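Notes from the 1:1 (GR / supervisor)

We went over the backlog. Supervisor wanted to see one worked example end to end before approving the batch request, so GR pasted a single chain during the call. The sequence is below; no edits were made to it. Supervisor asked that the structure be written out right there so they could see what the output format looks like.
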Amino acid sequence: MTFSSVLGLFLYFPEDKSEYIPAFIQLVIFSLFAYFAVKFFIKLSKREEKKAKELEEHLKMQSQEKNS
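Structure output shown during the call:
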């Protein structure tokens, strides 16, 4: 068995190129989902960072009041 015949078992290139359309649509849909998921996690991360900074400032102020 040659390399090209083994590779032929795993690769399928259809003669009718319209069979690529559903795959392209799925690629676009999943790419959009991935993009919006990344944007969501970035927004969530920034929100959590803001909360952490506020908590840090609050604890710093309490610490200063306690030491005074």
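Supervisor's comment: The chain has one domain: 18-67.
Batch request approved.
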